[in-house]
Amino acid sequence: MYVDGDLVGGLDIVKEMAANGELTQILPVKKTAPAAAAAAAAPLEERLKALINRAPVMLFMKGTPDAPQCGFSARMVALLRSVNATFDSFNILADDEVRQGLKTYSKWPTYPQLYVNGELVGGLDIATEMKESGELQELLGVRTATPTV
Fold it and tell me: What is the pTM of this model?
């Protein structure tokens, strides 16, 4: 028998170690999968909820608003700025746990992700459609300049 790549011994030695309690001391402890997954997921889920609710308008993006790391994130920042939205952001490239966990949590596989008041609005396509219809500005409670007649 091998434990972590080291030879422990044959059946006779393993039986002897089991009888005197030594075997349990050298065997790795395995958590049950559901319990281990639940224990790991709970703190991450709490962290994601806290991040999502860190500001009324929260953008999860690649890079930062002043230095986007992908075209979609750059376009989302430009879109939010075009409607005078005040928003906070989180660089998902700086935290792999958040990057992977948020995709699962939100059931949204891509970035950027826009949240308003803790609720997922969607990605760039949805935000663009909402801006064109005026829904985004209404949701964000922002006023854009109206042309004078």
Answer: 0.69
